[in-house]
Amino acid sequence: MHNIYQDLLKQAQDDSVTPRAIDNCYSKIVEALNVSANFAVPACPKNFYKFWWDHSMDELKQKSVASCNIWRDMGRPCSGPIFDRYRKDRAAYRHEIRNKQRQEKEIDTNELHEALLQKQGKTFGKSWGRKFERSSRLINHVNGVTDHAAIVEHFVSHFSQACTVNTVAGDARLKAVYCDMRANYRGCVIDDSYMFDAELVEKSISKMKRGKAADLMV
Fold first, then answer.
1. 32 CB contacts (<8 Å, ≥6 apart)?
2. Highest mean pLDDT: which of 3-17, 65-79, 133-147, 187-201?
3. Mean pLDDT within 142-146
4. How many Cα atoms within 13 Å fall on the side-chain side of residue 37?
5. How far, in Å, are 1, 94, 95, 107, 198 from residue 30 at the CA level?
6. What is the C-alpha separation between 1 and 18, in angstroms, rounded?
7. Least confident of 134-138, 157-161, 167-171, 209-213
8. Alpha-carbon torsion 161, 154, 26, 195, what sign?
9. What are phi and psi of 114, to 5 degrees?
């Protein structure tokens, strides 16, 4: 992080602003964010958090753990009120887990059924993808080419042709239109509402819910 910070300071002190300098600054900022995320942001595998886990599940788990600890402290008796309480709390906790898991499957099945009845293609596709997730396939060849360098050259050739101008006259005309519109462009007014600090970022992160996809507005 120190080396990244020193490179950004050198870039900030340099008066010349070139596309290469902007790209370099952008790469350093992204690298700093990735390094910070690896050290500070907790990560967990997909589906680690269960959406059906609620306060009642916490209470059942605490009761099961408490009665289990008492049962162990008393020498693990095979009969009596302590053993009966331990088995009852453990059975209630496991029964509720199976019940919640069954409800999860029923919710997905009902969503698929309703989407089919109402002919909602997008909703059906999302429900199907969530229930039957496709395994990612590794693409190791493009147009019959397997060499990585040759594949890169194919991409460069394709997109370089796609991004060239159709005609010189048309390119000059569109550039003139752009320059004419750009001459009177002033942009948006930046006031205090656009400013943010570390406290605002921390407050926003603390309000985020775990186990939720980043692109869902919940």
1. 1, 4, 5, 8
2. 65-79
3. 75
4. 9
5. 12, 45, 47, 39, 18
6. 24
7. 134-138
8. positive
9. -65, -40
Estimate the crossing angle of helix 19-40 against helix 2-13, to 10 degrees: 150
**Amino acid at residue number 128:** W
> Which tokens is 153 given?
């050259």
SS3 annotation, the chain: CHHHHHHHHHHHHCCCCCHHHHHHHHHHHHHHHHHHHHHHCCCCCCCCCCCCCCHHHHHHHHHHHHHHHHHHHCCCCCCCHHHHHHHHHHHHHHHHHHHHHHHHHHHHHHHHHHHHHCCCHHHHHHHHHHHCCCCCCCCCCECCECCHHHHHHHHHHHHHHHCCCCCHHHHHHHHHHHHHHHHCCCCCCCCHHHCCCHHHHHHHHHCCCCCCCCCCCC
> What are the φ/ψ torsions at residue 193 (nearest 5 degrees)?
-70, -20
- Residue in the structure block whose two tokens are 């590794």: 138
Q: What's the predicted TM-score (pTM) here? A: 0.36
Give, to the nearest 10 degrees, the angle between helix 55-73 and helix 81-117. Answer: 160
